[in-house]
Each structure stands twice: as C-alpha cells, then as structure tokens.
Amino acid sequence: MFDKTPRWSRREWLQRSATGFGWLALTDMLARAAEAEQTSRSPLAPRPPHFPARAKRVIFLFMHGGPSQVDTFDYKPRLSADTGKPLPFSKPRVVSSATGNLLRSPFAFKQHGQSGAWVSELFPHLAQCVDELCFIKSMHGSNSRHGGALLELHTGSDTFVRPSMGSWISYGLGTENRDLPAFITICPTLTHGGVNNYSSAFLPAVYQATPLGNAGTPSRQVTIPFVKGTTPREQQRLELDLLADLDRERSVAVGKDAAMEGRIQSFEMAFRMQSAAPAVQDLAKETAATKRLYGLDDPVTENFGRQCLMARRFAEAGVRFVQCTHSYKWDQHENLKRDHTRNAREVDRPIAGLLTDLKQRGLLKETLVLWGGEFGRTPVAQGKDGRDHNPHGFTMFLAGGGIKPGLSYGATDDYGYFATENKVHFHDLHATILHLLGLDHTKLTYRHAGRDFRLTDIHGEVVRAILS
C-alpha cells in the first residue's frame, strides 16, 4: 500500500521537536517559579538567621514535675554529712509547703568520663555520655508553682499568656521542610498551663505547635490528628484553591483577615503533611539495633524511647523544634527513692540512645538537645522521704549544637538549695538557645498591642562560657 503519512526532513523534525522541548522546559520553569513564589509567601518558609548559626534545630526533653538536682547531677557531700540537721541558713520566704531538716540523697554518686562529671546511680546510661553534656548547675526561676514555672520555662513569662519558645524559633527561622510543621510536641501535658506551653499566643497561628497525642496517650498510639483524609487529593486541591480565591476576593473588598489566612495556611500544611508525616512517624524501617538503642524492646523504656526516636526522625526530616514530655512524674513530695528510681529508669536509656544515635548520624553537631524540668527540689525533707519544689537552684543539661561538651557550669551552695555561682535564669537560657540558632534575642521581636515583644522580654544574657 502507498504510505500517505507526511515525512519530515531531519531539519524539520529538529525544529518541531525543539519547539516542543522548549515548551516542556518553559512549563517546568513556570511550575518551579510558581512553587518558589508560593514558598516565599509561606510564613514557614526558611529564613536566614541574624548571624551564622551553630545549631539548626532543637530537641527539648522535658521532665514534668521537677527532678531533684541533689539526687541526679549535683553531688553534695556536705548534704550527706549533715543529714537530719536544720538548714544552717534561712529558707526562701515563699515555699510551697512546710519542710523539715536536711535530707541526704539515697542514691550513690560517681564521677564519669574524662570530664569527671558527677552522676548518681539513677542514670547509668547517661553516665556514659557525660563528655557530650554541658551541665548548668545554677539554673533558677521565679515561680515555685508548677503552672507558673512551666509557663516561665516554655514562654518566658509566669504571669501572662505569651508565645512559646518553639513558636518564637519557628517565627524566626521557619521550617526546613515545607511538608512538615516547624514545631511538634509529642505527648504534651494538659495541666499546669496546658496548651499555653506550646501555643503561639499573639504570633500568627501557623507558629503554634502541632501536638501528637497528649500526656494520657501512649506514644505508640500518637499521630498527627486528621492527617489521613478520605477525600481524593485532587478534590482537596481544588477545594483549597477555591478557598484561597475566595479569601483574595474578600481581602480586596474588606481587607485582610489574619485569622482566616492562618486557617487557610493550616489547611495547606495539613494537605502537604498527608504524604510526609505518616512516613516520618512510621518506625517500621528502623533497624532492630536502633530500636534496642532507644529501649523499644523493654516495656519500661518503650514509651519514652518511642518519643525520642520519633524526635530524631522529625529533626532529621527538618522540623525546627521537637519536644518530648515525660509527664507528670517527677513531683516527689514523698516516696522520693521509689519514684525517682522508676522515673529515671523510664528515660535514662532512651535519652542516652538519642544522643548516641544523633552523634552516629552526624546530627548532634547541628541539633541542640535540652534536658530539664520546670524547677528542682529542696535539699530539706518534706514529710518522711520527699522534697518540695525549689526554683532557686537546680540543674539542666544541653548537648550538641554549639555547646561546649564535658562542662559543668555554675554551682549551688553546699547543700544545693540556692544558685550561687554563675547564676542562669530562664531568660538567660532562652537567650543562649536563640543565639545558638543564629538569632539575636533582642532583635527577634513581634509588634503586638502597641509594643514590641520578645521571648526574653527585657531580660536575658547569652551564657557565652558554655559555647564551644
């Protein structure tokens, strides 16, 4: 048969193909430009720090209730020698309840690592990591009540609703992964300030934390709520585009509505998270060795170990601030030996596993790990074998992210009651964390109600002695 199909010369074929290739390239360029424009408009788009950062992200391991510094990391031989005697100086004017005489620690202390850091027998696994840690033994706050102390630790204020530390960091730096939130809190407490501990307050709503479960939910059951939609993605995309168009028309007519924009942004984030978040939370691909490292093979350590492993995965995926909460267990007004032993056993192996895993993966250098509670405990007894709240002198530790390892900074008095040497207030801690992330705490501000606000309010000094 005679073939009537028109034949092109090689020159014609190249010309026609080149036009097609050009359109393909142009289409791709336009798509990329549109995506870049959308990203640049996003309030969570990555933003440069004020100066070169030493850390890219934070993992906060919060011990809700107040671990006792004199039973964990602040060794006080004088306390053991004088146990049963009255405190030889005045107690604070405001205390939570009546307390008695000095009470020695029931736990043995030993020095560990090249740094010679003192660690009680409560933390045998963390004791092997002390050369990675920087202990601040002179922490102090302003409030002896759980609610006020939690808010001060998380937001910088114990009396007013303010944005949380994670919200300020998200506001300052955005996220490293546009498909995930900048701020995630795992199993957060519902008491002592509750959501105010991780809210964005007057900052735009997009900067508040995305909670995974709460303190009453086992970590194996937590997930980002409603992340798996039942509506086909194509239809969801059309619905979101329609909402955005309606919002733009409304903005032209009556002006911008910050609340509406925040809600649409949250919808957009939820849409993108559908594919990214479940994959990050799925621990099935982790090796058996990694799961053992975090203590997932032991029912005692499995719950907090799972939190810590998820924190590493979220941090690795680009989440800027991740909080794990061991709640609400450290408030030992009685049964100190029994309950501190149980609590430490639940978190010791997972925390050591997290530090080890971060270091092995090369993530510890750029990830700041913070451990601590809202205050410490008194060196004097409450009842037979308990300790009261003590915001006047306690211990927290940091690791990675530009922190000087193997250091013990500051000190309390001979009994561990008051911070006496190189005192560090929560405001100073916040200023230092922001500094490590490349943010000047005096310049990270937000205009609200006629004045500029910041995480450290009008206070805070960077603790430069603990920087590497």
How is this structure best described in words?
The structure is a single chain. This protein has helices at residues 10-41, 77-81, 146-155, 165-173, 233-254, 258-281, 288-293, 302-316, 336-360, 426-436, and strands at residues 57-63, 109-112, 117-120, 133-140, 183-186, 210-212, 321-326, 367-372, 376-382, 386-390, 394-399, 407-409, 411-412, 419-421, 424-425, 446-448, 451-453. By secondary structure, the chain is of the alpha/beta class. The protein has one domain (55-225, 282-466): 3-Layer(aba) Sandwich (Alkaline Phosphatase, subunit A), CATH 3.40.720. Helix 8 packs parallel to helix 9. The longest helix has 32 residues, at 10-41. Mean pLDDT is 89; it is low at 30-40.
Topology of helices and strands:
Layout: H1 10-41, E1 57-63, H2 77-81, E2 109-112, E3 117-120, E4 133-140, H3 146-155, H4 165-173, E5 183-186, E6 210-212, H5 233-254, H6 258-281, H7 288-293, H8 302-316, E7 321-326, H9 336-360, E8 367-372, E9 376-382, E10 386-390, E11 394-399, E12 407-409, E13 411-412, E14 419-421, E15 424-425, H10 426-436, E16 446-448, E17 451-453
